[in-house]
Amino acid sequence: MAEAPCRLLDLPSELVHKICAHFLPDILPPYRTFRDYDAARRSVTDLVNLTLVCKSFNNVAAPLLARYNRHPLEAGIIPYIYTILQNPDIASHERTFRLRPSDHNGLLERRHVQAFDARALSLGVVLPTFYSTDLVQQPGTDARHNSIIHEGRANLMYLLLASLPNLSSYSIYSTCQPLFPVNGLVVMFNTVEQIRVVGYSDIPSSLDMGIFRRYTRYSRNVEVFESVNMAMCNRTIYLYQVHTIRLLSCRISGDSLVNVLRHCSSNLKTFVFRSGYYSIYLQQGAQPGDDQRKRRSDASPWDIAAILMLSPARESLETLEIDMREHFCVKAGDIHARPPNPETDLLYNFIKGLKCFSALRNLTLTQQTLWELWFNACPGFDKEGSFCDDMRLIDLLPSSIESFALYDVTPNFLRCISTFAEHVGSRMGFRNLKKFTMRPSPNFVRQLTHARIHQDDPELRFFDEYNRFCRVDETLLPRWGRIMLMLKNRGVRVDCVPEVHPLDTEDQQALQRQRELQHWCEKCHFDFSVCVKREKWLGVYAD
Q: Between residues 29 and 337, which one has the greater pLDDT?
């Protein structure tokens, strides 16, 4: 007779405790760095959740949870900096740091101010005594919206970063120019390899990348620079050795972009620009007319390419990503009223200009950087050669390209992609191409899903709530498959899974909406009218 399985909690409690302690070592001290603490916090969260659903496990977990210690930053920025100044050993182990608007300052005590002043004197910066009142939250105010509180933090940041001798990366926000030493010895952040600066929308001054120019100027060995949620760069920043620049969820003008790239490294390998107008792309933001006025001076795809061509990175750039999905959005009724020449010239130059990057190997674009449905309908747009014909992709890509990705594809652009696939498949060009990625637009995903249902059951017919026949383009799937086949036969790795990839993948709410949308679209074979109603309720990707 088979033996009954032994449950974990049937074992002696001492043995269970040792087993759990063995598999959950990350929650036990000592952990001295942010990375150690993040791992411990994740483990503790899982352990606490387990104790909530398994009361018998509570007694086993209690000794482990009792040994869990908080990272000094949880008590506030002020106690954390004091800990760093008082404990050089801890400071030497801290290799990463991050400061978020949601963090709090903590209590400011006399011993804190004395330690800060002593360190400030050694660095030759303004004594924290002179702005100590800025570090204390005033009664009845929310620290997150109190600019004085944020300015005090910015002034302390140099004090902190200059006291972390082995710091390799940090992520910070700021609302003002920090109090770096004017006369005296400046501490160089020679160990820092990655900087991430984040804009804080509640305080407009924090949206200027130029605020961080001294951080980058004194960090000559930085290799990766990331900017998140920024709207301008009013001062030149210095990126001497940077090989990767990522501007994520940013909304900046061409002049601001010049200030970012004017003194970039001549060895820049990767440049990424992802537009910050995510809510507009999801059709949740301002009306198109208002939106157009807000973005009148924003950098276009051609501006990005042109500024890169004039920068020191022209000969070194290997990877370029431009994720701009809303720049040319207009109302359908305004198509013929829109002046054609500026938009036509910009896009025509963009298509022709990318071949100037002789080292370019990897390119990621959105369809909106190359074509919108209303372009061909505008007067005069048909006179721009490859701007309107099916040779756009062939004219765009340099012969050295190895990886090409195109996002937010619509059915209207399949002809252009097919021409490109035929060109590659017939060995007429792009012999170095190794990988091709294509992602459909949200509406195209629905069409492909619906077409697949009809393909699986040709006898199936649907009518919506208004008794309208469900029309589906039967050629979509064959055309999609033919593109994949032509490239695969040429030896190109093809990634054309019909999934939606949003502009900002960190937006969990939008991701959940898309998962719900795809889930309900897959149920079309039960009731098409339900799918239609569900899409209208979501209100995100409705036609």
A: 29
